[in-house]
Amino acid sequence: MTDLEQLQTALHSLKVLRSNVGIAFESVSNGLRADHGEDGKENKFILELQELLSTVNNNLRDVEGAVSNLSIPPGPFALGNTIYLSQEVTQERQSLYVQLVNSYKWTDKIRDYSALAGNILASNSVNKTYKTFSTTKRRKTQTSTHNVPPEVIENLITGIDRLFPDVTITASRPFVPNPVIQASLSRVLKAVIAFKGLMIEWVVVKAHSESNDLWTESRYKVFKKVTENCHAAMCHFHSPTMPELAVKSFMHWFHSYNTLFSNPCKRCGNYLYSNLPPTWRDLRTLEPYHEECK
């Protein structure tokens, strides 16, 4: 048995001991009850208390045995400056330790998600090789999709606006020269899309009644799910060699959400599952699916 398994066994034994001690104290505090009856109720109460104390005694032996199997740490734990948190006497500063633990957990999740995102991007079309059909003619060097003239981006946005008549697009440039567009999809939803050159850098989907803040997510769960799926589609359609086609393909996929609340799931045939409509759109067929059915 590893050290971690022994520690889990000791903690489980301690948990059982605390539970049974609580039951014993509750029985003592309640005293004689109606279910003890009228005849010999004192003896029944004493027998019940003896049984509870015997159980507590057995649990205590289990805890002592489990603790004795634990290996002694080789030295003191390096807690750093967090060791001084135990000296705080004010209630507000005592909560700092909980916040610190949560920040450590958040950092670990960021590290795991970053590793997964790196693996996904590594397998995307960025690393694909392109064959040259002529050995005598050199392939033209591709221009960067980040540094392009503003006129090129304006033409792309205008083309998207003409391609989808039922999508209302308004553009602003808070990060000159990179635009941020608001794409309103009928009365269903709106998306705030940030560009970096000809590349979509960030997408957030919200209800029409919500703010246009790019960094604040929607308060509705359905639009949070759509935002997550937009991020996945943004990575899927990304192409450094054909950036304009990548943006138009993403917008064509995004346009399929005009039936978010009106089309049933292609798999189960239901409009709602777990109180949510089909929030996923197939990247090829654009058919609607619930998160659990895709």
From TrEMBL:
Q: Does the keyword Disulfide bond apply?
A: no
> Which keywords accompany this UniProt record?
Nucleus, Transcription, Transcription regulation
Q: Where is the signal peptide?
A: none
Subcellular location(s) per record: Nucleus
Q: Name one Pfam family in it.
A: Med27
- InterPro entries with a match to the protein in the record: Mediator_Med27
Q: Which domain of life is it from?
A: Eukaryota
Family statement drawn from the similarity comment of this UniProt entry: Belongs to the Mediator complex subunit 27 family.
Name under which the protein is recorded: Mediator of RNA polymerase II transcription subunit 27
